[in-house]
Amino acid sequence: MIVPIAVSIFVFVLLFFYVASSVRIVRPSQRGVVERLGKYHVTADPGLRLIIPFVDKMRVVDMREQVVDVPPQEVITSDNVVVSVDAVVYYEPVDPQRLLYNVANFILAVTKLAQTNLRNLVGELQLDQALTSRDSINTSLRAILDDATDSWGVRVKRVELQRIDPPGDVMAAMHEQMKAERTRRATVTQADGVREALIMRAEGERQAVILGAEAVRQRQILEAEGQAMAVRELAEAERFRQQTIALGEAEAIRAVYQAIHDGNPTPDVLAIKYLEALAKIADGQATKIFLPADTSATMGSLAGIAELFRDGGPKTGTSPLSP
Question: CATH code for 66-166?
Fold first, then answer.
């Protein structure tokens, strides 16, 4: 009775382990490569999968993006400077079958491949170019690794250089060079500032001189215009005065002439006026007296006047000034 129970328990345990060993769970970030009797059979997708124990074997491959750290290595640049370079490689499996069967140790293979190509890329550059060309080095190295690992079922997504460390003496020289360059830039900047200040000051002085000259010119123009206007006003006033005087004299002459004609003067009155005029001429302070050039007519007039007064008065119809 005990033996059949023991056999039943043994069979049950055996069946339990058989069933348990045939069940596999593949996670969403994984793929399962099933081998049957040592030969590739199928690639299992995520989920619950059943295999035949002792006949099938499942190898799980992580399909998430992973990183490989490339150890530092010494690289000689084209200008014979030894630098220490290291990088990191980010890759993503795309075909688990090729990743398992086409390369024995993917991590070692991609590390050595990255070191070799990194040595080639940096060795073609000078130190200054290597320090300033990280992006181009990353792009070139990623393209090389992605092309080389395509047959391994892996896609290289990006490559990043972590450090490019020159030797200590080169670093000290670079620091001195950078310091000298910054000093030069500061000196140039200061000189540019002084030059700009001098230019601005000279420009300001020139503008001040121009504005001063313009002010003087405007002042002179205004003074000249004022003087011209004053002269014009004076000339206008003088002209008006002379016109007024001339008009007054003309009116006076016209009034005298009209009074003479209205009074109908006789020749003896004219003669007396003539003598009074001569008396006023002779009474002046001048040492010379100018008489009319026609002396014969003058003498005749004087003789006529004398004859007039000798005869006791003028005769009717005769003129004392007539010859």
Answer: 3.30.479.30
3-class state of residue 33 by DSSP: strand
Instruction: Please list, residue by residue across 104-113, b when 16 or more beta carbons sit within 10 angstroms of its beta carbon and e when fewer do.
Output: eebeebbbeb
- Which residues contact residue 49 at a Cβ distance below 8 angstroms, ignoring those fewer than 6 apart? 23, 24, 25, 26, 32, 34, 58
Q: Which residues contact 93 (CB under 8 A, 6 or more apart)?
A: 61, 62, 63, 66, 99, 153, 154, 155
SS3 state at 102: coil
Query: What is the chain's mean pLDDT, rounded?
Result: 81
pLDDT at 281 over 90: no
Domain segments of the chain as ranges: 2-62, 66-166, 171-264, 266-323
> Tell me, what's the pLDDT at 316?
44
CA–CA gap between residue 233 and residue 212 (Å, rounded):
31
Q: Is the pTM of this model over 0.85?
A: no
